[in-house]
Specification:
There is one protein chain. The protein contains six helices and 32 strands. The chain is mainly β.
């Protein structure tokens, strides 16, 4: 036990086999070039790390820490054709968005020492997976090659000295969009979804992987959404960042002649700060800092327009939620929401995941996650009233757990639903009167048509033989100068419903 406490692990239990078998684990080789066994890519990207970045702090946090910025490390977007309006440096590191089935080539360069990029959840071949102790660390440049076979929410991060590098900001989101199913029926939701081309624009609209039938839509595995929000929730220990650490801090030294030697291990209390001494005091949602002046628990509201939900009743809202911190998190929403995916895997989609199915979480019910877990949720507002509320994120200490003593932060995010106007969605339409009066002498007639819907605010339109696309004012229309019997006549609703009359009523 003394050895484990002193060196962080017990060498006689952690290491097995001959010393030469341990070299790859504790002394990863370096390599550049690639890709190995290349195939023609669909997309080519370029990323550089380690790159410095200053996170601007809001007033209350700046006053508490005595500085208005927090040093970060990020992965820079080095794509040569990136528009000037798109920042190359950001925290989280710039989002990567691609399409299901794409083959990617990502040239990764290191600007300080050796690094890797791990494509978390993608599971490419071992040499392209970016876990250095199982393959190699990048020296100079290396081109990763992988295919995005399953649509979902993922992320990418450096996998060298992972505890420190992830905390310092060497990570970013990775979204794999499904292809557009090109279903005209989805245009009844109030947008022309057939015109969308993946990869979809961040914030929506678009499609996400999942069974459409769960939402009363036509069969298929791509759910349309009007809005998208990415809630990547992080917690930072300012002491780590302000200490300006070496990127090899706490790492085991490499001794090829004695890779498991006790002297090669980091010794706690050696003068540097220890990576198990973690006390987060800065909290962010997708890079937006909570302006909390005191704590723990640190509390407040993040109402940034890229984070808050402001939707119109009738919309489908997608939340991509990522626990990007070393905390236990609980998310509570003020309205019901449907979980459609966990950790990049869509629930109920034929193939590997047909054994699961989406499930609805009632309002106020906690969704608990641990580090690196991702959850995709749909808020279906088609049958919800207008309301104003807050989503609540509670972050708990990873040792003290979900207890009052362990609560580190509570973040509230506005969730506002407004009414008025058409309410897209499938509704019920009834034709209550369709009477045709024909004048045999003139050879023309009129149709007295009445219809109603079970949803307020929708537009009813009638069409049939001899006329088309007649809007029913308050559910009623008289159509004149008909030259033949118009039946069958069909009434459709902007809410997606329809009804047909097949003869005189």
């Amino acid at each position: 036990m003394a050895i484990a406490q002193r060196f962080g692990t017990a060498r006689d239990t952690f290491f097995t086999g001959m010393p030469e078998n341990l070299l790859k684990h504790v002394c990863p080789p370096t390599f550049g070039g690639g890709p190995l066994d290349p195939v023609t890519p669909d997309r080519e990207l370029r990323r550089d790390l380690l790159v410095g970045f200053d996170l601007q702090l809001p007033p209350n946090v700046a006053a508490r820490l005595g500085t208005d910025r927090l040093p970060m490390w990020i992965i820079e977007n080095d794509d040569p054709d990136l528009p000037e309006t798109v920042p190359r440096r950001a925290y989280p590191s710039p989002l990567i968005r691609t399409v299901q089935g794409d083959v990617l080539h990502v040239r990764v360069g290191g600007k300080s020492g050796t690094h890797t990029i791990h494509w978390h959840g993608i599971e490419p071949t071992p040499v392209n997976d970016g876990v250095g102790k199982h393959s190699f660390e990048i020296s100079g440049n290396f081109i990763y090659q992988f295919q995005t076979n399953e649509a979902g929410t993922y992320f990418y991060h450096c996998h060298k000295n992972t505890t420190l590098h992830f905390q310092m900001g060497l990570w970013g989101g990775l979204i794999v969009d499904p292809k557009n199913p090109n279903l005209p029926a989805d245009n009844n939701l109030g947008l022309t979804f057939t015109a969308l081309t993946p990869p979809y624009q961040t914030f929506g609209p678009g499609y996400v992987a999942g069974p459409r039938s769960f939402f009363g839509l036509s069969p298929g595995d791509a759910i349309p959404y009007h809005q998208e929000r990415i809630w990547a929730v992080d917690s930072l220990d300012s002491a780590w960042h302000l200490a300006n650490p070496n990127h090899n801090l706490n790492m085991q030294d490499c001794d090829a002649n004695d890779p498991a030697g006790a002297r090669t291990f980091y010794r706690f209390g050696s003068g540097e700060f220890d990576l198990n001494d973690f006390h987060p005091d800065v909290f962010t949602v997708t890079g937006v800092v909570l302006d909390a002046g005191s704590g723990p628990p640190f509390s407040g509201v993040i109402s940034h327009p890229d984070i808050a939900i402001n939707a119109t009743v009738g919309q489908l809202v997608l939340i991509r939620y990522v626990n990007a911190s070393y905390t236990i998190q609980e998310l509570r929403l003020p309205v019901p929401a449907t979980v459609i995916a966990w950790d990049g895997h869509p629930l109920g989609v034929p193939g590997f995941h047909q054994f699961g199915s989406p499930y609805t979480v009632p309002a106020g019910t906690p969704i608990r996650t641990t580090s690196a877990r991702r959850c995709d949720l749909i808020i279906d507002t088609r049958n919800l009233p207008a309301s104003q509320g807050f989503a609540t994120l509670r972050l708990y200490d990873w040792v003290k757990g979900v207890t009052a003593a362990g609560l580190r932060a509570e973040i509230q995010i506005p969730v506002n639903l407004t009414g008025g106007g058409p309410q897209p969605g499938v509704d019920t339409v009834r034709i209550t009167r369709a009477r045709f009066n024909f004048n045999t002498r003139r050879g023309t007639g009129t149709l007295d048509l009445r219809a109603e819907s079970d949803r307020a605010g929708v537009t009813l339109t009638a069409s049939g033989t001899g006329f088309s696309n007649v809007e029913l004012v308050r559910g009623r229309a008289t159509i004149r100068n008909l030259t033949q019997s118009p039946f069958p006549v069909t009434v459709t609703s902007s809410g997606g419903g329809s009804a047909t009359a097949t003869g005189p009523i």
